[in-house]
Amino acid sequence: MRSTLEARRDTGQLEPRPWKIRAAKELSAARSRMLRMLEGLPEEALTRQHSPLMSPIIWDVAHVANYEEQWLLRALGASALTDSAFDSLYDAFRHPRSTRTRLPLLTPEQAFAYATRVREATLEWMQHVHEDSDAPLLRGGYVYGMVAQHEQQHLETLAATLQLMTGHAYRPTALARPRPVRVAQHEVFIPGGPVRLGSDALWAYDNERPAHTVEVAPFLLDAHPVTNGDFVVFVESGGYGDARWWDPKGFEWIESQGIHHPLFWEPQDNGTWLRRRFGWVEPIPRDEPVQHVCWYEADAYARWAGKRLPTETEWEKAAAGSDVRPRVHPWGDGAPTASQANLGGNTWGPAPVGSYPAGQSADGVWGLLGDVWEWTASTFGGYAGFKAFPYREYSEVFFGTEYRVLRGGAWASAPVAVRNSFRNWDYPIRRQIFAGFRCARDAR
Fold first, then answer.
1. Does residue 243 fall inside a structural domain?
2. CA-closest candidate to residue 329, choices 406, 267, 407, 395
3. Which one of 8, 12, 26, 43 is most buried, by most CB atoms within 10 A?
4. 240-276: per-residue pLDDT in tens?
C-alpha cells in the first residue's frame, strides 16, 4: 500500500502536512538557540562541572541528541546511530548530575558532531514518515513536538548553568526590553465557578492530560509577580530570621544553609543591594520580578504579606479566563509574540512589570507567561484519568509530595513549551531556576 505522501507526490501535491512544517521549524529553532548560547565557550567551560546541581554543559548537548536519536529515529523505524551502551552514558536517571564528569563523555567536538549527524538523519527520515498515521507517537507529530520541547527545556537548564558558571564569565548580549507602562501592584478578583483545566492538544504532555472541569472558589490574585522592590522590604524587615513566616522545614533549611536573601543578591555596606547576573554585577532593578527564590522563600513572603501562594488550579483559572472555552494562553489561542510575553531566552532576564500589556489575561492579570516561573501551593500529581505516555519517567515517577508545581514559564523558556496548561515541578529548595511568584488570598 502506498503512503499518503507518495500519493500526494503523484498528484503534484508536494506540500507537507502542517505538523511537519511546524516540527522542522521548532527543531531548527532549538538547535539555532543552542549554537548561539554556546558559541565561543572554551572547552574547559563546556566540560567543567560548574555546580553539583548541574551537568557539564557538553553532557546536555549529547543528551538532547541521544534523546532525539532514540525517539525520532529508532522509535520511528530508522537505523540506529549508536547503541544501548552509549545511551546509558546520557541516561539522566542512571547518572545523577553530580557524577557525570566522571563518565567517558564525548568531547565537545564529538558531541556537536553527533548532534549534527542525528539532526541530519532526523530530517531525512521525516520525509519517510507517514503523515496521516494514527500511531500515538505520530498523531499530529506528537513525538516531534516532544523532542523539540525537550531540547528547549535543556537550553533553559543550560542558561541556569551559565549563570552558575565560575572561572569563565559568561556575558551575553541581551535584546532591548520594552519600555513598561507605570503600574502599581493590585489585586484582581477572579470569579469562581467551573474551569476547564489541562489540555488534550496534540503536543501537550501526559501530565497535562486529560482536560477536565473542576469548580474553583472566587479568589484574589496579584496583578503582577512580586518584584525585587517588594521582596527587599521582606528581607530588610528581618523576614529571613522570623520563624513565624516559614514552613518549619523551610526555616530549618535556610538556617542550616545560612540563607538571608535571594540567590545572587549581594548586600552592600551602604545599605544598597547588588546582584550578579551572567558575569555582570549591577544594582538590583526594583521593578523586575524577583527571581532565584525557592518555594520556601515564596511561601514565607506570602505569609508575611498576609496572603498565600495560589494553587495551580487557581493559577490556571486566572490564565484561562472565565469563558466557556478556556484560552490556550492568557491573551487567547494565538502563539506567543514578542509583544505579549518575555520568552525565548534572548533578553537574558525578566522585564519590568507592566512591560507586556498585550499579554494580559481576560480578567486583567499581567505577566502570567514569561519572565519568571511562578511557584504555586500545589504538589505534583496526575489528574484523574492520567496515563503515562510515552514513558513513565517523564512525569509519573515524580508524582508525590516532594515536588512543588511551577506555572507560566520564564524569560528563558521557549514559546513552544509555554501554555496555560503546562506544568513544571521542582524541589521546594531549588533556587538556581528562574523562579519567582505572585500571591493570592481568599475572596471574602
1. no
2. 407
3. 26
4. 999 999 999 999 999 999 999 999 999 999 999 999 9
Q: Are residues 10 and 118 located together in one domain of the fold?
A: yes
56 and 203 in a common domain: no
DSSP string computed for 270-323: TS-EEEEETTEEEEPPTTSBP-S--HHHHHHHHHHTT-BPPPHHHHHHHHH-SS
Is residue 171 in a domain?
Answer: no
Please calculate the CA angle 249-254-255 and round it to the nearest 5 degrees: 100
Answer yes or no: is 169 within a domain: no
The answer to whether the predicted template modeling score (pTM) of the entire model surpasses 0.70 is: yes
Residue 377 backbone phi and psi in degrees, to 5: -75, -10
We report the CATH number of the domain holding residue 60 as: 1.20.120.450
CA distance 412 to 152: 9
Per residue in 362-405, pLDDT (tens digit) is: 999 999 999 999 999 999 999 999 999 999 999 999 999 999 99
Find the Cα–Cα–Cα–Cα dihedral 168, 173, 177, 183, rounded to 10°.
20
Give the DSSP H/E element, type plus range, for residue 229.
helix 228-236
Provide the residue type at 368 as one letter: L
Is pLDDT above 60 for 18? yes
> What is the reported pLDDT for 169?
75
Amino acid letter, residue 350: P
Range of the domain at 313: 187-228+288-442
Peptide bond into 267 cis (omega under 30): no
Q: Is residue 127 part of a domain?
A: yes
Q: What is the pLDDT of residues 165-194, one digit of tens each?
A: 976 778 888 777 666 666 778 999 999 888
C-alpha cell at 364: 486583567
The b/e string for 282-315 (b: 16+ C-beta within 10 A; e otherwise) is: eebbebbbbbbbbbbbbbbbbbbbebbbbbbbbb
